[in-house]
């Protein structure tokens, strides 16, 4: 297998990676079924709960393992080699816990409540901010979801799109404009209080459960109000540099690795009767295989290096890494897309068959181009960072 131990730094990481490898093998066996039907893999999520994986990024103070960002990426990449949809979906939960752990963005009583629920009951959390009219929250639009002040809290009404992991969420961080003001708030909503509208029917990542969620006059007590602020004030969640979002490129690199493994095995074992050797020894096939290796090695090395830098950086220094994390995401998702394309060229026309996983990998990696940050945002950040020393 491709450099399976190359990025592993300790025996403890290797032992935990065996757990995620076993999970990934199980997920792979049913990935095609969920992809075909567009169904949410509840059994995969339950297995992640039972294994304890959903608790691994919880702080040690609350009973978790408090694994590093770099180690988290190892596991996310491995899970995606089995099923990209499951990996991407659970990545938002484990990544968000790490983000809240590092940014201290939540009032401690709220964060403690969340962590204890994860440890005791395997509860899951994600942030749902995208809306039909505003698109991605990274573009800065004011949410149309509205929070109205009432005695003891707020009542929230609105609709969120791209709500990944929605069928399994116990906690949902919701952004909403505060009625009769310019302020925007973040509110912790219980999953049981929202209605899921099953709208997710897409080309790739079909089993992430990224449906719409609808809130009709949902009451949020003051104890679950995270923040209410002016919209131009930056989110406290961003003050860690957003390194946790590397779970996204890790997922797509995992899909790319799965495609790479399939193509390598095929090339090493397929020998048409017109050749005295497997096609792996045909020069143009060999070149494609080598290109795949280089693209994956380059993207993975950058991602893991930046994750290690984030792990060792002080809280004050982490925000400066933000443009580099965007660069890692853009390089990784584009590399994964190119690797799957090369794998399909190696395998040939049979790569289009529904009975083989390559066509699913091809559709899944396409989705990575539309996960944040988008390429244009990354290029803008890098350009500004590069030109800033020369500006008057």
UniProtKB/TrEMBL annotation:
Please provide the record's keywords in A-Z order.
Answer: FAD, Flavoprotein, Oxidoreductase
Q: Does the keyword Lyase apply?
A: no
Q: Which CDD domains match?
A: ACAD (cd00567)
Where is the Acyl-CoA oxidase/dehydrogenase middle domain positioned along the sequence? 128-218
Cofactors named for this entry = FAD
What are the GO MF terms of this UniProt record?
A: acyl-CoA dehydrogenase activity; flavin adenine dinucleotide binding
Domain named Acyl-CoA dehydrogenase/oxidase N-terminal: residues? 18-99
What sequence ranges are listed for the domain Acyl-CoA dehydrogenase/oxidase C-terminal? 256-367
InterPro entries cross-referenced by the UniProt entry: Acyl-CoA_Oxase/DH_mid-dom, Acyl-CoA_Oxase/DH_mid-dom_sf, AcylCo_DH-like_C, AcylCo_DH/oxidase_C, AcylCoA_DH/ox_N, AcylCoA_DH/ox_N_sf, AcylCoA_DH/oxidase_NM_dom_sf
Pfam families under this entry?
Answer: Acyl-CoA_dh_1, Acyl-CoA_dh_M, Acyl-CoA_dh_N
Family of this protein = Belongs to the acyl-CoA dehydrogenase family.
Question: What is this protein's name?
Answer: Acyl-CoA/acyl-ACP dehydrogenase
